Amino acid sequence: MPGLHQLKPAAGSRRKRKRVGRGDGSNRGSYSGRGSKGQLQTGKVPFLFEGGQLRLVKRLPFMRGFTNNFRVDYTPVNVGSLNAFDEGAQIGSDELVATRLVRHADARVKLLGDGDIEKSIHISVHACSASARAKVEAAGGSVTVLDAPDAAEEDGSNE
To answer: 144-157, pLDDT tens digit by residue?
Structure first.
């Protein structure tokens, strides 16, 4: 078994450092691979520099405001679109995906009150507006809110 002192990198995996400015015989002398004249010969150009033209970053308006990284996005589903289901149906995320009301089964769904419902259904969603709940219950159905936040989480206390 070889010792640690006998280990070598794989052939071709290591490249020798390019030594520049060591005479014309070294193939990297005089201009050191940078060409003859110009701005790039002596230094670098600033990032996004467009040759003196007003750069894109300065041409666009300021992005103002605040983006909440912890925002929870809901997919809206209106009460009127639930008429596609049969009377007394148990509706969950899989059924909403099957009828193409929701794109993904793991999406958070909020039931909204636009439209009317004539059928008694039982639906499980992540959030529900008051008008939507009233319309579903008036038709003889029920709304179950999944993983509803506790009262301690709603009032903002950290206890």
So the answer is: 999 866 555 555 55
Domain-embedded: residue 103 = yes
- The domain that holds 114 is classified in CATH as 3.100.10.10
HSE-CB for 118 with a 13 A CA cutoff: 3
C-alpha–C-alpha distance, residues 48 and 57, integer Å: 8
Report if residue 133 sits inside a domain.
yes
Q: What is the C-alpha separation between 93 and 104, in angstroms, rounded?
A: 8
Tokens of 45: 């150009």
> With a threshold of 0.90, does the pTM exceed it?
no
Residue 104 in any domain: the answer is yes
> Which tokens is 137 given?
């219950």
Q: Can you give the pLDDT at residue 39?
A: 84
